[in-house]
Design a protein that fits this description.
By secondary structure, this protein is an alpha+beta fold. It has helices at about 10-20, 65-75, 95-100, 105, 125-130, 215-240, and strands at about 5, 45-50, 55, 85-90, 110, 120, 150, 170-175, 190, 195, 200-205, 205.
C-alpha cells in the first residue's frame, strides 16, 4: 500500500515541526570528525553513504545543486576519505538511481556507514531494496529520529517520481524510519519545495590498489640506486685487488 499525504500550504508552515519534529530551517554548518573504516582486505573497493547533517530547500530542478550540497556536507566531516559525493534525490530529469550510479565495479561495491557498518551489499541491491528497513544513519554517526523526513523526489527503485520530483510545486519527502512503514520510495508525503530537509548522500568508490605516493617512489628509487652503486664499487675494488 502506498501512503501519500500532502503536507504543503498552511499545514507545512508549522505542522511538520509540531507533528513530526522536522526542522523548518536548516541546521548550522559545523565541522566534525567521525569515521571508522570498514574491515576489508587491502585494496578493496567500497562506498560510504548516509544522510546529510544539514538541510536544503528543494526548489532547484538542477541535480548539480544537490550534488554540490552533498559534497559540502561530506566536507564537514574531516575524517572522511577523499571522494566525490552524490545526492540521493530525483530533480528535473535526473533520477536518484542515475545520479548515484557508477561503473560496474563501483556498482558492485559494498556500501558502509561512517561507523564502518555494512548498509548494502552493492548499489544495485540498495536500489532494488527500495530502502526497506534502511538504517537512517547520518554522516556524523547519529541516526535520524523516527518520523523525520528527507527529500527524495523519487519513486520505486530510485526512479523519478513523475508527480513530485524536487523543483516541482510539491516535492516528495520520505522517512527511512517512517510512521507509515519502512518503504522509503513508496511511503512518502509531499512538501513545499521552499521548506528544508536533509538528503541522502553517497560517495564515489573508495579504496582500490594502493599506489605509492610520488615522494615515496623517489625515496625508493634513490635507495635502489645507492645499493646498485655500492655493489658496483665493491666489484671494482675486488677486481683491483686481484
Amino acid at each position: 500500500m502506498q501512503y501519500k499525504f500532502n503536507l504543503s500550504g498552511s499545514v507545512l508552515a508549522g505542522g511538520l515541526v509540531a507533528w513530526f519534529g522536522v526542522p523548518s530551517v536548516a541546521m548550522a554548518d559545523t565541522s566534525y570528525a567521525y569515521f571508522t573504516a570498514p574491515s576489508l582486505p587491502t585494496g578493496s573497493i567500497y562506498r560510504i553513504a548516509g544522510f546529510s547533517v544539514d538541510s536544503i530547500v528543494g526548489t532547484s530542478t538542477d541535480i548539480a545543486t544537490y550534488n554540490t550540497f552533498a559534497n559540502a556536507e561530506a566536507a564537514l566531516n574531516t575524517a572522511l576519505p577523499t571522494a566525490t559525493w552524490y545526492a540521493g534525490v530525483s530533480a528535473g530529469s535526473v533520477s536518484f538511481a542515475s545520479n548515484i550510479s557508477c561503473d560496474a565495479t563501483c556498482m558492485a561495491a559494498p556500501i558502509y556507514s561512517v561507523a564502518g557498518v555494512l548498509l548494502a551489499n552493492s548499489t544495485t541491491d540498495l536500489l532494488a531494496s527500495n530502502f526497506v528497513n534502511y538504517p537512517p544513519v547520518i554522516l556524523n554517526g547519529l541516526s535520524l529520529a523516527n518520523g523525520n523526513f528527507t527529500w527524495t523526489g523519487s519513486g520505486a527503485n530510485g526512479s523519478i517520481n513523475s508527480l513530485y520530483p524536487l523543483g516541482s510545486s510539491n516535492a516528495a519527502i520520505a522517512s527511512p524510519v517512517s510512521n507509515y512503514g519502512n518503504n522509503y520510495f513508496y511511503n512518502y508525503v509531499t512538501a513545499l519545495p521552499s521548506d528544508t530537509f536533509p538528503i541522502f548522500v553517497i560517495s564515489s568508490e573508495i579504496g582500490g590498489t594502493a599506489v605509492p605516493e610520488p615522494s615515496s617512489a623517489l625515496v625508493l628509487g634513490a635507495a635502489l640506486a645507492a645499493m646498485a652503486g655500492a655493489g658496483l664499487r665493491r666489484r671494482r675494488r675486488n677486481a683491483t685487488n686481484v
